[in-house]
Design a protein that fits this description.
This protein is mainly α. The chain has 5 helices and no strands. The protein has a domain of 76 residues: Cytochrome Bc1 Complex, Chain D, domain 2, CATH 1.10.760. 49% of the residues lie in helices and 0% in strands. It is globular. The chain binds heme C. Heme C binds next to helix 3 and helix 4.
Length: 109
């Protein structure tokens, strides 16, 4: 057993997803496309990095974690109807692009 280490729910999922996928090298996304696509996300997710009204901040997430989160909504392993709908509409390329863009944004502080 490893020591009890409190971790947010998404982290353990990401670790699992990474191990299941065998960790292939991630193609890097097109940041400009990501910025364009993010206009849909900023209605809910603040680019300031502040969490507002229970909606998590998504700036500064490492790209591989971001992709794993989006895939978790896509495959409905994560249960949120709004995000499931949004993720299902995005292509792999678009998710990579969003991941590259959001990774490049720095949370404040
Ligand atoms: C209508 C509001 C809304 C919009 C628009 C929206 N989201 Fe979300 N998003 C949420 C909510 C609410 C959650 C938290 C869901 C949960 O509890 O699993 C979330 C969670 C996430 C998470 C997981 C964050 C974490 O750390 O757990 C990611 C990544 C994400 N959204 C990305 C996006 C992207 C990319 C877009 C645009 C393509 C987008 N969202 C658009 C409401 C929204």
């Amino acid at each position: 057993m490893r020591g009890a280490r409190p971790s947010p729910g998404w982290f353990s999922f990401v670790a699992l997803a990474a191990s299941l996928s065998g960790g292939p090298a991630l193609a890097s996304g097109d940041k400009a496309l990501g910025e364009y696509l993010s206009s849909e996300c900023t209605a809910c997710h603040q680019t300031s990095g502040r969490q507002v009204g229970g909606i998590p901040a998504i700036v500064g997430h490492p790209a591989d974690q971001f992709v794993a989160l989006m895939n978790a909504y896509r495959t409905r392993q994560r249960d949120n109807v709004v995000m499931q709908t949004i993720a299902a509409r995005l292509t792999e390329e678009e998710i990579l692009a969003l991941a590259a863009y959001y990774e490049s944004l720095k949370p404040p502080g």
